[in-house]
Amino acid sequence: MNDINIDLKKPKCTDKTWEGHTDCVRCAIRNHVLFSGIPEEQLDHLVSPIKNITYPANSVIYRAEEKSNAIYTIRKGLIKLVQHLPNGSERTVRLVQNYDAMGLESVLKEPYHHTAITLQKTELCQIPLSVITALEKTQPQLGRQLMHQWQNHLDNADKFIIDFSTGPAETRVARLLLFLRKSSNSLCFNKIGREDIASILGITTETASRIMADLKRRSIINCIPGECCTCEPERLYAIANSMS
Amino acid sequence: MNDINIDLKKPKCTDKTWEGHTDCVRCAIRNHVLFSGIPEEQLDHLVSPIKNITYPANSVIYRAEEKSNAIYTIRKGLIKLVQHLPNGSERTVRLVQNYDAMGLESVLKEPYHHTAITLQKTELCQIPLSVITALEKTQPQLGRQLMHQWQNHLDNADKFIIDFSTGPAETRVARLLLFLRKSSNSLCFNKIGREDIASILGITTETASRIMADLKRRSIINCIPGECCTCEPERLYAIANSMS
DNA sequence: CGTAAATTTGAATGGATTCAAACGTGGTGG
DNA sequence: CCACCACGTTTGAATCCATTCAAATTTACG
After folding, report:
1. I want to staple B188 with a disulfide (CB 3.0 to 4.6 A). Which of A186, A243, B14, B228 is the partner?
2. pLDDT 10s per residue in chain A (244 long)?
3. Does A22 reach chain B within 8 Å, measured CB to CB?
4. Strand locations in chain A (E)
5. Is there a contact between B161 and B201 (Cβ–Cβ < 8 Å)?
6. How far apart are CA A156 and CA A162, in angstroms?
7. Closest Cα to residue B166, out of A114, A117, A81, A199?
8. CA distance B199 to B176
9. Does the C-beta of B244 come within 7 A of strand D?
């Protein structure tokens, strides 16, 4: 497994020569509109505290209750936000990926509300709160950007309830697999643990395993060990839309 | 049943002689900080489009997909936000009450994302978008207020997943009853339909009915027809926390 | 190669859904 | 005023589904 890799060189998102630069246009914070009015030399100085970090799977980015001091945007990969149940087990309440922002509560000076854990190798930008507050002064549109991010989280939460917490277990699994497919294009769901599936869908590990095994047997998904999976999307859609 | 009652007289929330005025201090929009810098005569003019409306139970406030033009704050009562499933039935994704704001997506010029329906007699303030945009210019803290509202919705969504979509049906019902108790103080849950309970908890109407009937038989809740209910909170808590 | 951890499978139990029927309640019209 | 109908709630019985607990199997990794 590759280790955590913090790239400290300089703020990549303003460096046009960086290969990943084109992605930054989609970034929640470093939006192409957002930096438009700021002179080049100020800009470098402002965003230099932004770090590009790559985490392996199963890394904790931050913990619930912890004092917050940065928001994050996900560049590549997948993260679960979990909350701890009184009983000791954990329930996943959101999946974050694909240029979503995360940890917005830090803008409101609140401690983090979830524990954030990577489900795959994940590349993200860590934006210290100081950058946000500094940018806010000169860039009034930033507030609007953040509101859109909040709304986006809400929409995700709604989809989470509708897709992952409604209907029989097989239906939920199918919807999760389709979600993962859309997000990563390559369907590496042999990488995601059964326990994670269970915590996302509110079912037990055994049920998750049984259903996954059954889908394999029916050749709806095909997993070569160590490789990514293939699936038959139409058949998954059929299951996903079957309201018992 | 009492009809919809729109109070057009004048913006009550700035009228200190109005009996409900003290509540307005807690309002998401008319916050005591918020209006501090604005001269009296401008204030009246600014907030005059705000309407106080009282709806009976089962009224539709707005519909999903509909063009949005106002946000709402709930003064008293209870509202469900529902989304329609492909199958035709509906799933409740949030419960709104107690000075919560609702319809924030209108600030982002998006159509409403849910259909909002009252579960009880509900009193609310309708704040046209024009008021928000006008206030935004002179009151920079308004943006922050709105962010807090978004965060509040997110927290509610999390609780919705953890409390109402996790664990066995009886546990979920107990948690819902305790939620209703805390919100309305008086526990009028003979008023809330079994179908509503089902759509909130993601179970069937029959299961909801069976569990409610059983709780009555065990005298954990006592309902006098036409009156409000009483319950034994400790026993409900015991059920609510029983993870099985 | 061997051990720990994760996954799969089995069998029994318990819980939730389905479909159908009975019951109660409130409202309408004869 | 009562009969009747519509609608929501309750109950029953059968079936199906998910969980539990235990064991077997596979996989990952030192």
Report:
1. B228
2. 456 776 555 556 666 666 665 566 666 566 655 565 666 677 777 777 788 899 999 999 999 999 999 999 998 899 999 999 988 889 999 999 988 999 999 999 999 999 999 998 898 889 899 988 988 887 788 888 899 999 999 999 999 999 999 999 999 999 999 999 887 656 666 578 999 999 999 999 999 999 999 999 999 998 876 667 888 999 999 999 987 5
3. no
4. 5-7, 51-55, 60-62, 70-76, 78-84, 90-97, 101-102, 115-118, 122-128, 221-223, 229-231
5. no
6. 10
7. A199
8. 12
9. yes
C-alpha span between B130 and A200 (Å, rounded): 40
Residue type (1 letter), B72: Y
* β-strand partners of A66: none
DSSP A198: H
3-state secondary structure (DSSP) of residue B27: coil
Q: Residue A117's beta-bridge partner residues?
A: A60, A80
| A160 part of contact set with chain B, CB < 8 Å | yes
Gap from B156 CA to chain A (nearest CA, Å): 10
CB contact under 8 A, B147 and A146: yes
pTM score above 0.85: yes
Q: In chain A, what residues touch B166 (CB-CB under 8 Å)? A: 85, 91, 202
B210 vs chain A: nearest CA distance in angstroms? Answer: 19
Is residue A121 a contact partner of residue A184, using CB atoms and an 8 Å limit?
Answer: no
The token pair that represents A122 in the structure block: 């994940």
Handedness of CA A35, A37, A38, A40 (dihedral sign): positive
Residue A127 identity (one-letter amino acid): I
Chain B residues with CB-CB distance to A91 below 8 A:
161-162, 166
Token duo for residue A162: 């509708």
Residue among A139, A131, A115, A104 nearest A66 (CA): A115
How far apart CA B78 and CA B121 sit, in angstroms, is 8
